[in-house]
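FAQ: What does a multi-protein file look like?

Like this. Sequence, then tokens, then the next protein.
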Amino acid sequence: MKKIALILVLVALVLGGGYTFISWSAQKTAEESIGKMESDIEDAIPGIDFIYEDIKANFMNKSAIVSKITIEFEEEIIDKVDNMEISGDEINLKLVNLSDISVTLENRTMTVDKLSVTNADAAGLQAMFENFKENPME
């Protein structure tokens, strides 16, 4: 009976440790990916600040969830997004879900409840950012 209990405890520890490692690894990957996206946006357009409150990884969906995004241009808020869920890789963005979006340009505000993009060309977006870095917008 003690052997069975010991085996069950060991299995629980291994599963718990595995879950913790996978969760930590997914969180680290999400933070690195969003950090790269942030620097790409800020490098491409001088005067832009990409600010967010929190990043959480959903390793079951292989996605990152970023909350309370604010994009400022020369200290003026031009875009707010309550939540963004993004998944994919450097070639293909499988899913981008944005919720509660508010865009303000020239004292006009547009709001969108939800916006979803599937199977976007991430390499094409990266090329666009690289072009902006080489030829910054003024």
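And here is the next protein:
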Amino acid sequence: MNITSYNEKTRYLMPLGMAILKGGYYIASADEYLYKFLDMNSDRTFTELIHPDDRQLFLDAAAKVEEQGQYILVRFMTIEKNYKYMLLRLRPDKFVVDGFRCIEVYVSDIISAMEKHMINRVNLTKYRRVMCLAEYL
């Protein structure tokens, strides 16, 4: 599967964000990174933020989260209402609200994270070369 077709640039990059979902998969709480990434879309249910073709994958993973944490790759809505592939890590949260065990979800823009990592790696290599030359000056 080639995921680069869903890698449009967005106004805000989010290498990693986190949310706690309550019943109906509404966002009960999230970190600043995810709220900035979602912007006006943050009032939607989490399932509405996932591409229609990937929703069942999310629902299946959410149903199994009590047994074991789940990792899934889904297309996730951006500020611009486009979709980007995101890696989701689901695990049960300690809170139970109205009989529903909340779900902790980590959302990672894996392509942006990889690109940022590569830039940092190049910078580190340049720095190491300069430091090696310092002893010869």
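Q: Is there any per-entry metadata?
A: Some entries carry free-text notes. For the entry above: The helical segments are 32-38, 46-49, 55-64, 110-134.
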